[in-house]
Amino acid sequence: VMSILLHGDAAFAGQGVVYETFHLSDLPSYTTNGTIHVVVNNQIGFTTDPRMARSSPYPTDVARVVNAPIFHVNADDPEAVMYVCSVAAEWRNTFNKDVVVDLVCYRRRGHNEMDEPMFTQPLMYKQIHKQVPVLKKYADKLIADGTVTLQEFEEEIAKYDRICEEAYTRSKDNKILHIKHWLDSPWPGFFNGDGEPKSMSCPPTGISEELLTHIGNVASSVPVEDFKIHSGLSRILKARSEMTKSRLVDWALAEYMAFGSVLKEGIHVRLSGQDVERGTF
Questions:
Q1: Average pLDDT over residues 15-25
Q2: Domain span at residue 17?
Q3: What is the reported pTM?
Q4: Among 140, 206, 234, 261, fewest CB within 10 Å belongs to which?
Q5: pLDDT (average), residues 174-194
Q6: pLDDT tens, residue by residue, 253-276
Q7: How many domains does the chain have?
Q8: Is the distance from CB of 215 to CB of 221 less than 8 angstroms?
């Protein structure tokens, strides 16, 4: 499995979650052993110029915080893009670290139907309108090289257009939109004890009172003999022990019992978030 994230250039530079995720990328129990980040860099964020959106020359500069290699590649050159992507995959597989591919390209039309980029970026869009589209540019190169003939190219285009047209025609036959399928799992028996697939079913998760008492006692004891414990902590442990004896629980003890029962089944529990190491909450 290889994790690939696709970003826009403005989002890559401007969304805090990108920077935060980079900082988590090499932590124990968090790492994906390297993610490939593909940035579709059309050099404009909706209507915002880069100089108004970030302080660094490249949108990908946030990746420098973890020393990830960043490949800037001309997206008008498909073979260069393929080469760079192969290098990125090899880097990730060899070093298990993040790597970034910055596809330097442009956006031919507006951000959406309501956006006319000639209002906000007239000079840039005069240049873009003169650009030969990448498909034509590459096709002309392959035909000139003798790699493909004009007829082969036209047949491929016609084949692709046909796939799109057929899908469009079929879509008109769909009279009902099943919103529920998007929002909820349509698989019957998914949450039954005897549901399929077995690995996905949820068997009853209750445990015996005896086991709960055992976990409560362990959670309120000190594992090492003659260990001098902080008086504030010993009060908490004593109160927890009393609750277990009285068959009462508060949130913290209930949580302990849940974690304890999962750990007893040999399942690793990782807590993340504020102050979890010292168990403040």
A1: 92
A2: 3-131
A3: 0.72
A4: 206
A5: 68
A6: 999 999 999 999 999 988 877 777
A7: 3
A8: no
